[in-house]
Design brief:
Oligomer: single chain
Distance between the termini: 19 Å
Shape: globular
Order of helices and strands: EHEHEHEHEEEHE
Structural class: alpha/beta
Number of strands: 8
Amino acid sequence: MEEVSVIIPCYNRADLVLEAVESVLRQSYKNCQIIVVDDGSTDNTKEALAPYFGRIDYVYQENKGVSAARNQGIRMSRGDYIAFLDADDLWEPEKIEKQVCQFRPDPELGASHSEVLFNEGPEQVALKNSNFLHQSGNILKPLLLLQSRVILSSLMIKREC
C-alpha cells in the first residue's frame, strides 16, 4: 500500500492545527505520515500538539515562511505521494483515498487535486476543479496562473515529480 506524506506548515495556529491533524487522522486511507512543520510559532503550538507526538512527526524551525516550512516537510517526507494541508484547512474523510485511487490506473499521472469547498461566512462556495484532470504536457501556466483555483490543500503529488 502506497504511503502518503501529509505536510502541515504551521505558524501561530495552535487554535486550528489540531483540527487539521484530526482531519488527517480521520482519513479512510490510513497509510499516512503526518508532518507538522512549526515555522517559528510564538504561541503554544508545540504544547497543543504534544498529545499527538508519536502519531505525527513534529519539527520546529526558525520562522522562514510557509514555503520554507513546506520544503522542510518535503525533506522529511518518505511517502510515495506528498499532500499539503494548511493548518487552517480541513479534509473530508475520503480525500486521500480518492486521490490515491486516481493515480493507480495511470502511471503517467504526476499530480491530482480535489474539489474545494470554501467557507465564506454564512455562505459556502463549492469550486469544482476537474477541468485539468486529464490534460498532459506543460500545464503549469494554465493550472496555476490563468483559470484554475487549485489550492495547495487540495493537491497530491507523486514523489518522483
